[in-house]
Amino acid sequence: MLRSHKIRLAPNNKQSTYFAKACGVARFAFNWALAEWKRQYEAGEKPTQASLRRQLNAIKREQFPWMLEVTKNAPQMAIVHLGQAFQNFFAGRAKYPTFKKKGIHDRFALTNDQFAVSDKQIRIPNLGWVRMREGLRFSGRIMSATFSRKADQWFVSITVDTKDRPPTCENQAVVGVDLGVNRLATLSDGTLIQGTKPHKALLNRLQRLSRSLSRKQKGSKNRVKAKRKLARLHVRIANIRNDELHKLTTRLASQYGVIGIEDLNVKGMMANHHLARAVGDMGFHEFRRQLEYKTGMRGSQVIVADRWFASSKICSVCETKQESMPLSTREWTCSECGTHQERDLNAAKNLMKWAVSSTVTACGEDVRPAHTEAASMKQEFNAKTTYV
Ligand SMILES: [Zn+2]
Q: Which of 19, 46, 290, 299 is 20 to 30 A from 266, alpha carbon to alpha carbon?
């Protein structure tokens, strides 16, 4: 099984300059090959990543001598990736490849003959040993490494073909999970996971730095400095959140056999500017991604409720749907059965029921919950994104 471990690097100045250069060369090669691909295709030829790699090799010494300053692997792998992007496009899995921009997803990759890993260091020819913040977690055959940048921090993601596999989840328990803003997650069995919110001081600093950035003159050195500071803080806050999500998803995937979650339409939400930040904060998409691969490794299962399933509006005891459920309502009493419900816990219980009924459906019986409603969608979103 292929598994990747992303590790923060602690390069010296010379090494980070080299990384930045290698990213530039990789980006240039990718964009060059994409432009060539289009041109050749229109001329009736049949470009491939292999032919483009040969063509670039033949001319780079003459035309782009600066490419030789970094490992030849960087441009080669970039073109290999372009080939994969085209494969994904032809298979209908992805959009047509687009040109890469400087500063956005800066990265370059190396094949396993181009580096070596030892304890907490990684060695690259002509560059020497680069310190890693932690050792490689998996044992096995090392396949490749991808170097990437976030703000001014460098990371390496090392892919290993490993037999290391987390223990299979033996527990068959079903759980529903409601992700919230005031509380990280509420589980249908009553477990409340508060999560450490990024410290208020960090958020205050974020506000202060954004204000200070907006006052700096465009093109000035101070603006560049302020921008860098702000980007660094964003990464720090994102790291805190990501760490938290990893803990939550590992716990869920290893303790429960079936996990019911909501389908939040992230794209739809991103269209709303005010919601975008809160959604980014919560990382719902990331939550689902982590949960899916972690359950995949452990043999447990994720069940995503229908997008229109009104998990907050239905009473989990008698299944009566409440007519209105204002955003501010954190708890309510069911008009039908009189049960007092806490909003998030009730939603989690409904998601658990959905998960149970869906696993039954898979066995041939049709007992899907009937309460779905388009109009509830907006309200559901708003209820989850009152974060300031
Ligand atoms: Zn009820």
A: 299
Nearest Cα to Cα of residue 241 among 281, 277, 279: 281
Domain ranges of the chain: 2-161, 174-384
Of how many residues is the chain composed? Answer: 388
pLDDT tens sequence across 55-101 = 999 999 999 999 999 999 999 999 999 999 999 999 988 899 999 99
Cα–Cα distance for residue pair 373/307, rounded to 1 Å: 9
Of 36, 244, 262, 380, which is the active-site residue? 262
| Residue 344 bears catalytic tag | yes
Active site residue 373: no
The alpha carbon of 322 and the centre of ligand 1 are apart by a number of angstroms equal to 9
pTM: 0.70
Q: State how far the Cα of 196 lies from the Cα of 183, in Å rounded to an integer.
A: 9
How many whole angstroms separate alpha carbon 18 and alpha carbon 73? 14
Nearest CA among 147, 101, 98 for reference residue 122: 147
pLDDT surpasses 70 at 199: no
List all residues 6 or more positions away from 318 whose beta carbon is below 8 Å from its beta carbon. 334, 336, 337, 339
List of residues 6+ apart from 329 with CB closer than 8 A:
343
Beta strands in 64-207 (DSSP E): 107-111, 116-118, 121-124, 128-132, 141-150, 153-161, 174-179, 185-187, 192-193
Active site residue 262: yes
The C-alpha atoms of residue 220 and residue 227 are separated, in whole angstroms, by 11
Ligand 1 centroid to Cα of residue 363, in Å, is: 28
pLDDT of residue 269: 46
Run of H or E residues at 340: strand 340-342
Q: Contact, 252 vs 291, CB < 8 A?
A: yes
More confident of the two residues 48 and 125: 48
3-state secondary structure of 277: helix
Whole-angstrom distance, CA of residue 122 vs CA of residue 156: 9
Considering Cα of 173, then 178, then 179, then 184, what sign does the dihedral take?
A: negative
Tokens coding 144: 């490749």
Which among 359, 362, 372 is positioned nearest to 319, based on CA atoms?
372
Catalytic residue, candidates 36, 106, 244, 344: 344
Catalytic residue among 178, 292, 306, 342: 178
Separation of 359 CA from ligand 1 center, angstroms? 24
